[in-house]
Amino acid sequence: MDNHTPEQRHKNMAAIKCKDTEIEVRLRKELWSRGLRYRKNCRDVPGKPDIVFKGAKVAVFCDSEFWHGKDWEKRKDEIQSNRNYWIPKIERNIERDKEVNSLLEENGWKVIRFWGEDIDKHTSECADKVEAAVRGMRN
Asked: Residue 6: how many CA atoms within 13 Å on its side-chain side?
């Protein structure tokens, strides 16, 4: 059972950002400082990646651990409230991520996905991977 009223839950859910999150901004700043220019949340690329290098065909996704199901088999047991809603929702997100990866790869894109905590702890290393992919795809 939810501990919040429907109005409180709506307010909480509406506050969740789907673009320009902290992890996205952190990685984008690092990439920009390296002279890499990109598009954000490009709607004409399947999956609307967080960071897109169109010319190099590199799509970067910055995935939060909860919404995208990191360590899902272990973590789904931690969900206490509204399990009938959250478990299928997150499992569908995981499936959609796989579908988007396949679609992009079939069309010649390099797909890179980072977990939020990896960006938080290892921003430079994540940017290294993106930079190498962009330079590799351009050559």
From this structure: 0
- Residue 53's DSSP bridge partners are 58
Q: What is the pLDDT of residues 63-94, one digit of tens each?
A: 999 889 999 998 888 888 888 999 999 999 99
Is the domain 18-138 a CATH 3.40.960.10 member? yes
Question: CA dist 42 to 29, 49, 60, 81, 99, Å?
Answer: 17, 6, 11, 34, 17
